[in-house]
Amino acid sequence: MSKIDPKRRGALKSVVCLPTYNERENVERIVRALAQRGISVLVIDDNSPDGTGELANCLAAELESVEVLHRERKEGLGPAYLAGFRHALANGADLVLEMDADLSHDPADVERLIEATRDADVVLGSRYVNGGSIANWGRTRRFVSAGGSFYARLLLGVRIRDLTGGFKCYRREVLETLDLDAVTSRGYAFQIETTYRALRAGFRVVEIPIAFADRQHGGSKMSRKIVLEAMWRVPALRLRALIGRLQQRPRERGIAKPVAPPTSAAASAPRNRP
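The structure corresponding to this sequence follows.
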């Protein structure tokens, strides 16, 4: 089992945000698998009635790389991740990752996402690019997932194929630039909204293939309410972007275009990534 070499990742501090609600059967396995690879973990527990939070506390007491953020109640995936993002940034994280707690994402792929940020601002572990795959899903679940990503891609006019995927790595400046207070999606629409906002802000978003496996323990958090939220939020995101663009045009017409200063070799050089 290989660990992430700090020299290879440029000594950047990375943290995996792991939201949990009734994941007692899975949380110890995923946390230990990440800790054994030298990866810091922030468990964000929404007051799970099955004792997930208490078990996470025990793991944090044992493992130096593990921390637990307790929330008072279940509010959905989006608010849990936002709380985790803010906590990670406040504690100096350079790279912030999203990952499911049910072992559907392979801990061995975390290093691949981190390495890919050398040439990208947001990296998505994608099921729907060449080399990506899904195991143990029936036709209905595959249709809902692939159809949701296609629907979002079509309405938003972007090329990202796995917009609903929850395995991501953000560079710090992305989360600092995005207005996290304006992100209001609670379910899986959160994944669509954050990626779209990053693209709209001009950040480079890339997908790398992953093998996705369905959970073996516990029940899926997918519900009709979550699907419906994604269906109406996608056109709302596009409409908001179009309105913002129309409001920007009159302001741009009223401002004289500045004359660009002479370029120098230093000014025109591409940004070096750590």
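The beta strands are 14-20, 40-45, 66-70, 95-98, 122-126, 133-135, 168-171, 205-209, 211-213.
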